[in-house]
Specification:
Blueprint (H helix, E strand, L loop, with lengths): L1 H11 L3 E3 L2 E3 L8 H18 L5 H11 L5 H13 L8 H15 L8
Antiparallel strand pairs: 1-2
Length: 114
């Protein structure tokens, strides 16, 4: 696993060319906790897409698709999940994703796959 993470870190420090333009990658200093979370997100993105992803892809996705929730709402979700472990949710993201899907289905804006 550590070798895999080292390979991913090397990818984030390289330069790449897109249609004749050179985009310089920047190095970010992040905490060990933030690195673990980004690595977890990277794994989820790779599992969802079935394609190789980079830390840059994770950051781009977080910036373009992230929702900012109030600290109070996040705390309420975390407390609910802690008190209801029997429901089987492993992350707050999983719970929130399901809650949003169910709400969209209830107002007929979304139909989930069987």
């Amino acid at each position: 696993m550590e070798q895999y993470i080292n390979q991913l870190e090397k990818q984030t420090n390289r330069q790449w060319t897109v249609i004749g333009e050179i985009n310089t990658m920047k190095t970010l200093r992040i905490s060990d906790h933030a690195h673990r979370e980004l690595t977890r997100w990277l794994g989820e993105m790779m599992a969802q897409s079935g394609k190789a992803q980079t830390f840059s892809d994770v950051v781009d996705a977080l910036v373009s698709r992230a929702l900012l929730l109030s600290p109070e709402l996040v705390t309420r979700v975390e407390e609910f999940l802690e008190a209801n472990k029997q429901l089987g949710y492993t992350t707050r993201e999983e719970f929130i994703r399901e809650a949003v899907t169910e709400r969209l289905e209830s107002i007929h804006l979304f139909v989930s796959e069987p």
